[in-house]
Amino acid sequence: MSDWRPFVYGGLASVTAECGTFPIDTTKTRLQVQGQVIDSRLTECKYRGMFHAFVRIFREEGLLAFYSGIGPAILRQATYGTIKIGIYQSMKRMFVSNPMDETLATNVFCGVVAGIVSSSIANPTDVLKVRMQAKTESLQTSMFQSFIQIYKKEGVRGLWRGVVPTAQRAAIVAGVELPVYDITKKHILKSESMEDHAGTHFVASFTAGLAGAITSNPIDVVKTRLMNQRVLKTTNGTASAIYTSSLDCIIQTARTEGLMAFYKGFIPTWIRLGPWNIIFFLTFEKLKKIY
Q1: What is the pLDDT of residue 1?
Q2: For the whole model, what pTM was predicted?
């Protein structure tokens, strides 16, 4: 019989980490979508950096603006986090029964598969979260009504807008963060420099967050921009999109804004992924020990 606990613990820990770091994610999204020369809605660079974005959003929109999109974000983590961690932990045990015998290659493979499957399923919640954070269009107050609104105007493809870069990013993040955490923790325990306690989990999770931020930020920029664009259904088909694919987004972004555009929002990405991973892994490890 399969073990259900990694699924439940992963979902609970993911939701906890998401709630604790969501305002940082909002500033990251705003920084990533601004300055798009070919999108008239977002040509202005309103925010000079993370701290300036925090101050300006607070002054102009109020405290609640930082939690715009928290509903679909929690729903996303309840599905994405649950499936990702459950698949990752279950697949590892299929290959290796003893955690101390795990290899980097095995963990990376399991992380990549877990990231692709979970993010593909949870994509509609990510689309709604990004659009609510970016504030580029008027959505319904009800989360489920907003899903219906996107579906009516853009069809099923609208709900799975940006699914390819989302899956690519999830594969990178899960294929880096989860293995880095496990391998770092394993080496710390093997060296006997620290015991299996919160300090070890903190060091391993901080390392995982930094590695994840460096490798995932470029694809995260592409994902955010693809999700934020609208391609409305018309009687004659569909209107032309700003970006037709992930590759097109990469080429146009590099051409119009330069290569450093792919690291827009890196500071809030890192600052968010660090605490996110720390909160997540500390919660996950605590739940394992309690139950």
Answers
A1: 41
A2: 0.75
